[in-house]
């Protein structure tokens, strides 16, 4: 579950199917980083930037 409050995303526990795919390790690391945490977010053209209160930053970019 994800809650959106103004410019903050609050992630609940995240789960996924454990299907075999080429980047399963990357997916698992991302889910672990997001699960149960809150992030401020910004959208800059083709980027989604998530900023944790500790200063950790996740940048996702589309092609």
β content, as a range?
35-45%
N-to-C SSE string, H for helix and E for strand: EEHEEE
Please give the share of residues in helix: 10-25%
User: What's the count of strands?
Assistant: 5
Helix segment count? 1
Alpha carbon gyration radius: 13 Å
Question: Brief description of this entry?
Answer:
The protein is α+β, with helices and mostly antiparallel strands and 63 residues long.
Helix-strand layout with pairing:
Layout: E1 2-5, E2 8-11, H1 24-34, E3 38-44, E4 47-51, E5 57-61
Antiparallel strand pairs: 1-2, 2-3, 3-4, 4-5
3D structure, described in words:
This protein is an alpha+beta fold and 63 residues long. The protein has one domain. It is built from 1 helix and 5 strands, in the order ββαβββ. The protein has one helix at 24-34, and strands at 2-5, 8-11, 38-44, 47-51, 57-61. Strands 1-2-3-4-5 form a 5-stranded antiparallel β-sheet, with no helix packed on it. It is globular and about 35 Å long. The N and C termini lie far apart (26 Å). The model has no long low-confidence stretch (mean pLDDT 85).
